[in-house]
């Protein structure tokens, strides 16, 4: 013991003490601890659990999307709200629904676990839909004869919205991560299963949106609101039943405490040692045996080296045998913070991408309203809001083709799992978003030249391109966040996606306001005039295309700088051979 302590004594000119990184006995102990993991081996059922997982998510999406798709019409027709008041209420509701997953992710990763969070959130969503259905079915719960809504009627409506927001806060960050948890990420088949699951999840999501945008909206608008809301509520009840039927098959990842506390400890410890020089090598860092059965041991990286100070053992101040968590952190804790820091630039590029989708979705409806939407001689008119079905159709057709034909073909060429990396997939989607907006601008220019007699089907190509772009960028982001976040923060990864949606919605609203106020003049309408034939939506689309092009350059720079997360096992297979010491055999890490 004395010899080991002498070996750790720093030389006079160095501020740090060694952390025992070179001790063979310590290395051997760490390997043993990592192999044991301290947890019983999970029985991964993979695709056997998927009928329950994907079935639950499909019916949940049918229920929630079917409920929310037509709420503006419900509030203005049944509750008699002014359109501005109804839109404000729904904007507040939508923002809350997109921000609630942050809290749900924290509770899931820290205290409840994904299974319990999904179970509670699903039941809460079902209760919210049931109450919303009752506001339409029970005469006492909605206004009659154009009278204003009473306080009790508004309270019932707002309570249903609150229950739906709470349910979304638990379901949205956990459903993808919970499905991916059913596959063993340590095996090639498990990693392929995770990639396929993300594709098929989004496939079922688009099917649910297509049904909601057609059948359920038809029931609500043309049959009755009571039936149109009862069907989604019944589907949500079926979703809950399917989820609980698969309970015995599920792998349930247990929470290991708050990752945010660990992040705060790293930042505080690094700040306290900010005046000290950066450690010269990883051997000077505190790296005790990794004992977690949930979180993989992350290999050391030399990015953000200022954070390494949090794991540096300062002679005379830090005691590695009983460290203060706010003064001395492990290399694992520091690397987890680095994972999040590396993700932020890539995530920020996604916000601009969602701005493209948001604006196209909004103005595509307005474009459709000023086209000829009649079909045949019977006078049937295609609803302006139904053109999003072509976006979903492109997704629905492309995802199975990509998963079953394109990926295996590309994989044979690149010899990578998945064919291409997630960053390459996201970049392809961003590039397609530029093409989408250029096509949309060209179509709008033609529509303005021809006038309202333009066939509505000229809008189909831009919707198909938008769907194809989503198939690359959005699914790529979902898989990227899941794989690159530490395992104890995967619910936060799901919440991060919806936070990007929320920020993009707010930014789009700001863009519309700025363009509306700055592009008009005396006797000259602005680009986004009420009558699109008087405005210049084509120039607005070109502006968004230019933003998307700059965003692509920014994303490529971020992607070239980014380093994929690797575990210690990916970096080297370590063998201890008696007195010969450590021998490391380099291996190729599986692509992330």
Structure write-up:
- This protein is mostly helical and 592 residues long.
- The chain contains 17 helices and 6 strands.
- The strands form 3 sheets. A two-stranded antiparallel sheet has the order 1-2. The protein has a two-stranded antiparallel sheet with strand order 3-4. A two-stranded antiparallel sheet has the order 5-6.
- A hairpin with a 4-residue loop joins β3 and β4.
- α3 runs parallel beside α8 and α14 packs antiparallel against α15.
- The longest helix is centred in the middle third of the chain and has 39 residues.
- The radius of gyration is 27 Å and the shape is globular.
- It starts with a helix and ends in a 6-residue tail after the last strand.
- The N terminus and C terminus are likely disordered.
Short structural description:
This protein is mainly alpha-helical.
Give the overall pLDDT as a whole number: 79
Helix/strand class: mainly alpha
End-to-end Cα distance:
41 Å
Strand content: under 5%
List low-pLDDT spans: 1-14, 20-40, 572-592
Shape: globular
Count the E strands: 6
Q: What strand order characterises the main sheet?
A: 1-2
Give the C-alpha Rg.
27 Å
Strand count, sense and closure of the main sheet? 2 strands, antiparallel
The number of helical runs is 17
> What is the H/E order?
HEHHHHHHHHHEHEEHHHHHHEE
> Helix share of residues?
55-70%
């Amino acid at each position: 013991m004395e010899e080991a302590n002498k070996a750790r004594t720093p030389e006079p000119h160095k501020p740090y003490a060694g952390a025992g990184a070179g001790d063979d006995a310590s290395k051997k102990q760490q390997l043993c601890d990592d192999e044991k993991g301290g947890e019983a081996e999970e029985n991964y059922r993979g695709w056997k659990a998927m009928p329950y997982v994907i079935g639950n998510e499909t019916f949940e999406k049918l229920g929630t999307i079917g409920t929310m798709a037509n709420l503006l019409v419900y509030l203005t027709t049944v509750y008699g709200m002014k359109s501005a008041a109804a839109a404000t209420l729904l904007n507040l509701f939508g923002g809350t629904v997109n921000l609630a997953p942050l809290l749900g992710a924290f509770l899931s990763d820290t205290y409840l676990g994904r299974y319990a969070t999904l179970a509670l959130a699903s039941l809460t969503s079902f209760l919210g839909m049931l109450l919303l259905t009752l506001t339409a079915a029970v005469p006492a719960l909605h206004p009659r004869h154009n009278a204003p809504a009473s306080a009790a009627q508004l309270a019932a409506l707002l309570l249903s919205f609150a229950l739906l927001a709470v349910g979304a806060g638990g379901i949205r960050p956990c459903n993808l991560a919970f499905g991916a948890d059913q596959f063993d990420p340590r095996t090639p088949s498990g990693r392929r299963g995770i990639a396929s699951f993300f594709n098929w999840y989004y496939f079922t999501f688009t099917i649910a949106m297509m049904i909601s945008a057609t059948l359920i909206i038809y029931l609500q608008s043309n049959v009755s609101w009571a039936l149109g809301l009862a069907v989604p509520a019944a589907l949500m009840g079926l979703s809950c039943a399917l989820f609980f039927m698969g309970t015995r098959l599920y792998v349930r990842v247990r929470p290991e405490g708050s990752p945010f506390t660990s992040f705060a400890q790293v930042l505080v410890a690094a700040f306290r040692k900010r005046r000290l020089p950066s450690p010269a090598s990883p051997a000077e860092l505190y790296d005790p045996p990794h004992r977690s059965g949930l979180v993989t041991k992350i290999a050391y990286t030399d990015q953000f080296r200022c954070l390494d100070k949090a794991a540096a053992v300062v002679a005379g101040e830090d005691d590695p045998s009983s460290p203060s968590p706010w003064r001395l952190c492990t290399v694992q804790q520091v690397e987890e913070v680095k994972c999040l820091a590396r993700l932020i630039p890539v995530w920020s590029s996604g916000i601009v991408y969602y701005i493209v989708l948001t604006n196209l979705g909004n103005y595509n409806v307005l474009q459709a309203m000023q086209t000829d939407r009649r079909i045949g001689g019977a006078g049937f008119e295609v609803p302006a809001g139904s053109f999003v079905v072509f976006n979903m159709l492109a997704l629905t057709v492309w995802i199975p083709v990509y998963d079953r034909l394109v990926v295996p073909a590309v994989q044979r060429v690149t010899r990578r799992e998945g064919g291409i990396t997630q960053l390459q997939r996201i970049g392809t989607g961003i590039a397609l978003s530029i093409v989408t907006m250029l096509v949309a601008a060209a179509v709008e220019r033609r529509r303005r030249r021809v006038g309202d007699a333009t066939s509505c089907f000229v809008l189909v190509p831009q919707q198909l391109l938008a769907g194809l772009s989503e198939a690359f960028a959005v699914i790529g982001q979902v898989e990227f966040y899941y794989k690159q976040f530490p395992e104890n923060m995967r619910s936060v990864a799901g919440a991060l996606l919806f936070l990007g949606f929320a920020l993009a919605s707010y930014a789009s609203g700001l863009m519309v306001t700025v363009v509306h106020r700055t592009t008009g003049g005396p006797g000259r309408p602005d680009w986004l005039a009420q009558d699109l034939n008087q405005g210049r939506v084509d120039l607005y689309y070109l502006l968004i295309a230019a933003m998307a092009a700059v965003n692509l350059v920014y994303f490529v720079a971020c992607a070239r700088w980014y380093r994929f997360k690797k575990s210690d096992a990916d970096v080297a297979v370590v063998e201890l051979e008696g007195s010969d010491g450590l021998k490391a055999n380099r291996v190729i890490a599986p692509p992330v």
